[in-house]
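My main concern about presentation is that the manuscript never shows what a single data entry looks like. For the editor and my fellow referees, an illustration may be useful. For illustration, here is how one protein appears when written out as sequence plus structure tokens:

***
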Amino acid sequence: LVEQKTKGMSTQSVSREVQVLKKIDYNRTQIGVISRFSALILIKLNNLTNLSVLDPPLAKKDVFHYLHKNKRHLIPLITDVLQEMNQTGELDRINAAESIKLLNSVNPLIK
């Protein structure tokens, strides 16, 4: 996906996500591609201050739930509940609240 979205651009690969953000923060590169959530945590952990998250994202990825095969009878029920939660915006609200909790829990790790 990244290759498709950056076709024709001069690109570099890095072995760790934090390297992308540090290169931007130190003004060694202009743009980096990384998941928003990973970026927010790494920005906070590494006290990076010279970068901004652009919106809208290049792409969004689906996440999936997994069940043990002996619980497959629950799939229709879970699917219905998740679809309803998605339609009402409840999944987005829960995701936002839990993301904030996780980001706030990173504070004690910063020295």
